[in-house]
Amino acid sequence: MTAFKQVKSLKGTVRVPSDKSISHRSFMFLSMAKGRGRIIDPLLSADTKATMAAMQAMGVTFEETVNGFVVTSQGYKDFKEPENVIDCMNSGTTARLLTGVYAPSGKYIVLTGDASLRRRPMDRVIIPLSQMGAKFAARDNGRCLPLTIMPSKLHSADIIAETKSAQVKSAILLAGVQAEGITTYTEKAVTRNHTEIMLSALGAKITTEGLKITVEGAAELNAIDIVVPGDFSSAAFFLGAALMFEGSELMLENVGLNPTRSGMLKILDDMGVKYTIENERGGAEKLGDIIISSQSFSGCTVEGDIIPNIIDELPMIATLGLFADSPVTIRNAKELRVKESDRIAATLYNLNALGAETEEYEDGMKVYPIKNINTKAALKSFEDHRIAMVAIMLAKRFGGEITVDNIECVDVSFPTFMETFKSLED
Ligand code: S3P
Description:
The chain is α/β, with parallel strands linked by helices. The chain is built from 14 helices and 23 strands. Helix 1 runs parallel beside helix 2 and helix 5 runs parallel beside helix 7. It is globular, with a radius of gyration of 21 Å.
């Protein structure tokens, strides 16, 4: 258990870590492409290292450079059969996307993960990939890891989404780009579109019309250079921090602003929060610098089709309810219950431990402005990186004897969180 010194305000410039979703995809997609490509500024965290190791097991080479890696591959048609089980560790993105990458390979592959990942649903990729001819065996009646991919030949299919998940969409598109024929995937709501943007940059023929994405199979993927922007989901903690710690003034540099990821900015607009974006740049993946200061703000109701665009930011957004003039309500977010932890239960456990007034719903939560703080609260990370970071911020905000357990899990997405936060403490 770790205790923290109370922090008054945060000031300065933050360069957040590189985007986790784009880093995973860079490692995977350049491995699927033939030739030598470069990844510049990838995130090297526990999660993305799991993806890199998985691709090395398929015979792909990664050479370290000053700012990233050179990836050399024979392409997906010449993947080797891994000699051992692939450990996806804590990473749902690794497990779900790799299932799509590997299913058409005609190889025998076994995927597993840590205790948290072994509890998370895999049937969401197993069922639609099976409609494309993939063959799997998986624990718990075909629902969970460990999962075995059996050699089989995939064909194209028209898949209709059952969940609002970019991981599931990506798994289908990654299988579809390899299988013969034209595959379509129709989403239930727009989810993050990094896979579509990146596959197109590698030369795949992929188009989006409303909620329907179409990809041509048996594609030649060409190695390219990919520059990874800063992670909006990591920046979100500092957007939240500026609103939690009075007297703060922060500039967040080089943050990815893809609209399918940056929905929290719309939520901040709804809360009446003022911030500015400077130096907007980039092509298909926009980026910019965000400037935000402490201010008073109101609560709001967060629901509907924006949820997939703020899914990883919801523990932070819910926590802002403590500091707002009125409650924050989150609905339609049942997906939170199957993340690295049950993020509805985990967020409410910590807020309740601090003495907050909250309400729990099957698909969300309501958090009221806090009145009396329990300065002896023992907060828990639930071994979930995003829950840990919010808990650390709360402990630093309220001080006293508040502790947080097992904070090492921040390594999953933000290995330098503690140092970065400290460098801003005024
Ligand atoms: C991710 C998609 C989201 C998100 C996860 C990363 C991705 O998961 O929560 O952290 O990189 O595609 P779902 O697709 O399951 O919602």
